[in-house]
Amino acid sequence: MAENEVSMVEKGIVVTMDYSLEVDGKEIDAGPIQFLHGYGNIIPGLEKEVEGMSLGEEKEVLITAEDGYGAYDPDLEIEVPLTTFPEDFEIKLGHPMRLQDGQGHVFTGVAMAITDETVTLNLNHPLAGKDLLFKTKVSALRPATDLEKDQGSLSGGCSACASGDCSDC
Hints:
Layout: E1 13-23, E2 26-36, H1 44-50, E3 58-63, E4 77-81, E5 96-100, E6 106-114, E7 118-122, E8 132-143, H2 146-151
Antiparallel strand pairs: 1-2, 1-8, 3-8, 4-7, 5-6, 6-7
């Protein structure tokens, strides 16, 4: 075996994993994802389950809501004045929106209701409260670079969620 060849998922290894994700019996996402293992770049329950998998290994794992995106929190349904949004901001009911608070923090919210004076936003992750069924296969492994380990993630790209679109994270 070559010096840099890796055969098992462990901390400090870059993992390429093919997966499909089912929620409530329906596939909602699929594809490859690449992440730095052991640095919290994917949901905790999935990271724990892929630990120790070998190259080419397949595994089906059920991640409970608590080990995925957390329990649904009704306190994260908030009402905000309509005047807090810029006049040209388009609010679409039921669609995720990138929002920014007064301190500059960016987050995602979904408008649940709009009146002449307020907007009711749901700030829960769309998969909060849901159990997640992942079908996984480890398709590639490599040692992380020193830079990747130092920054705790891969350079360029999004590895913080199970989505190929960073705007979904």
